[in-house]
Design a protein that fits this description.
- The protein has 246 residues and is α/β, with parallel strands linked by helices.
- The protein has seven helices and ten strands.
- The chain folds into two domains: 96 residues, Endonuclease III, domain 1 (Orthogonal Bundle), CATH 1.10.340; 125 residues, Nucleotidyltransferase, domain 5 (2-Layer Sandwich).
- The strands form two sheets. A six-stranded mixed beta sheet has the order 9-8-5-6-7-10, sandwiched between helices.
- Helix 3 packs antiparallel against helix 4.
- This is RNA-directed DNA polymerase.
- InterPro entries: Integrase_H2C2 (IPR041588), Retrovirus_Pol_polyprotein (IPR050951).
- Its EC number is 2.7.7.49.
Amino acid sequence: MLKDAVFAGFPSSKADLAEPLRKYWPVHDRLSVDDGLILCGTRVVVPASLRRSTMTSLHAGHLGKEKTKERARRVVFWPGMDASIEAVIKGCSRYQRELPSHPRETMLQHEPADRPFQILDIDFADHAGGKYLIVVDGVSGKSPAEIVYRRPLRDDLPTHPSHFKPTHHPRPTDDAGEQSQTPVHGDHRDDDRRDSRRRAAKRWFDRHARDLPEFPVGTRVRVQDVRTKRLCADRPSLYPCAEAGP
């Protein structure tokens, strides 16, 4: 039926297709027939009767879920192929036995910020031989970036707190008249930079929180900001950074 539809041409509307063929609609413009084989681009379209054996062959090397799907995407195609491969691998006892015994710990979520500079994320980034201290505002997702030169990370950070506490955004007070705290979130990695982050938070802010329990992955907003700053670091006119240190 699919081969006949490819030869005859697909209709202009998905609703005009027979029900079994509608799942091919997203790729209908890439389907062709070559020497009796239906192709999707350069990949062979596998009929339903051969999909199980094809998945068994793809998983023969026990390469894991992602590598098996990557291998399949190079040579074969059928609708819902990724989900089918995941189901086969999930049922593989050898694959389940070789999974890491200590999976990643769950992200520790914090309450979203409702005012500028209420919550800050901090981390270091390296680019072109320079070290950058990235500080991200929890509301806007933007930050100043400070270049750290010729200083070991275990020293006090050569940055100024005025970059992180703008005077035009005063902190509100609670019912007792005390100013609310400004938590600083870091990834809590077990290295020298973690101690520097803690000292910076203790010196300039109220408390140092963490996003993950002893796991070296930062939050999405901070990671995206680090990537952005690396892209902009070679164009100081677009993103000026103050040089710090003597």
